[in-house]
Specification:
Blueprint lengths: L1 E2 L2 H4 L4 H16 L1 H24 L6 E4 L2 H12 L8 E5 L4 H14 L2 E5 L9 H8 L6 E7 L11 H9 L4 E5 L11 H4 L3 E5 L11 E5 L25 H6 L8 H4 L1 H9 L5 H24 L13 E5 L8 H9 L1 E2 L2 E3 L6 E6 L6 H16 L5 H8 L1
Parallel strand pairs: 1-10, 3-4, 3-5, 5-6, 6-7
Antiparallel strand pairs: 2-8, 7-8, 9-12, 11-12
Helix pairs in contact: 2-3, 4-5, 12-14, 14-15
């Protein structure tokens, strides 16, 4: 399989999976000791390593299963504050799952969703800023926006956006699902009120590892989706934020505990550590975009500064409706074909991780060209032509 969709669920390295199994073995050897007496200290240690990686204080982070859970926790916690006349601002690029959560809290509270139309293709990140800020009003209570959009793979100018919104007293919830491990992060400097990101994507931790960042002065109002023993735990030496989020019932915390190992392992792959890994993946993604754009005769849909380790390219309408299935079954290429707004209709998004090669994107481009013109080329013939 030519795997060009690392951005969907990541890919956990064998040494990290082996570490996860060791944690599970330790848990099962003495569950009461592990979950009853050791887990808080273990989570604190793992959280400290993660905090250093994302530029935050450990006390500002809670482990959660995925970024969608983080978005839901914030929205559901704040929902009682909203009512008719309040506005919740987002963009037309927002991830479907999180947009559904926004729809739910708006319908339940009576608040109105306002959508900023960010263009794609886009020529300048300022277009994103202008589109969002133009929709801000005195009724705006929260802005929910991606750091890196899932469908279009654009890196949005979040630091500039949060700075502009803070001056107006508007809270910002950043869906940073793709950011950790793809781009450098410093959440303290970024200034968002709330930020959630996945560790299982570009950080390559096991599935089910993510975090929620909440500024300390807002933590009292943010509750987990599952209310459990932490709600009335009498201890004072731990924050209520951690007491509630760290224990929402019996589960397998091994994915959280493996985050330090994922950070260490991925950072060891290249001599320059994480900075070199991020730069290498980004350079490969830009090279892949050039191959695809030249092969499909389309201009790059965004400036280089808005690209990270994955890129999206508009697809011609001449390609078959069952394009995804044909790429998988006929050519053994795993790559997402994404519905988009007219007139583009569909995008193709490619990811670049250290295990990918430029030749794989050339193979994809050739497959797309042949599917577009209706030729009956087999994958074997295409590979032979490439050689």
């Amino acid at each position: 399989m030519t795997f060009l969709n690392h951005g969907a669920f990541g890919a956990c390295p064998r040494p990290v999976l082996e570490a996860q199994q060791r944690w599970r073995d330790r848990l099962e050897a003495q569950p009461l000791k592990f979950l009853g007496r050791e887990i808080e200290e273990l989570l604190d240690t793992a959280r400290s390593d993660l905090a250093a990686f994302v530029g935050a204080e450990s006390g500002e982070l809670a482990f959660i299963p995925n970024a969608t859970t983080g978005v839901n926790a914030v929205l559901r916690s704040l929902m009682p504050q909203w009512g008719i006349g309040d506005e919740l601002l987002t963009t037309n690029h927002e991830y479907n799952a999180c947009r559904n959560a926004l729809n739910y809290v708006a319908q339940t509270s009576g608040a109105t969703i306002v959508v900023a139309e960010v263009p794609f293709p886009i020529t300048d990140p300022e277009q994103m800023l202008e589109a969002v800020l133009a929709k801000v009003s005195e009724r705006t209570r929260l802005v929910l926006v991606d750091h890196i959009s899932s469908q279009t793979a654009l890196i949005f100018p979040i630091a500039s956006l949060t700075k502009a919104l803070r001056t107006q007293g508007i809270e910002v919830l950043i869906d940073g699902a793709h950011a950790p491990g793809m781009i450098p992060l410093n959440l303290t400097e970024l200034g968002a009120t709330y930020y959630t990101g996945n560790c299982h994507k570009w950080l390559c931790a096991p599935k089910g590892a993510a975090f929620l960042y909440v500024q300390r002065d807002r933590q009292a109002q943010i509750r987990p989706l599952t209310i459990s023993h932490g709600a009335n735990d009498p201890r004072k030496h731990r924050s209520r934020f951690h007491l509630e989020f760290d224990w929402m019932g019996t589960g397998d915390p091994s994915a959280y505990l493996c985050v330090p190992e994922a950070i260490r392992f991925m950072g060891s792959l290249l001599p320059g550590g994480w900075p070199e890994l991020m730069a290498t993946n980004r350079n490969l993604a830009l090279a892949a975009r050039q191959v695809l754009c030249e092969g499909l005769a389309v201009p790059p849909p965004s400036p280089d500064e808005m690209a990270g380790a994955m890129v999206s390219i508009p697809l011609a309408n001449s390609l078959p409706e069952d394009l995804y299935d044909r790429l998988v079954h006929e050519f053994q290429i795993e790559v997402p074909v994404i519905p988009w707004h007219p007139p583009l209709r569909r995008l193709i998004r490619v990811s670049a991780q250290v295990y990918n090669l430029l030749e794989q994107y050339t193979y994809l481009t050739t497959a797309l060209k042949h599917l577009s013109v209706g030729n009956n080329f087999t994958p074997e013939k295409i590979i032979k032509n490439l050689q």
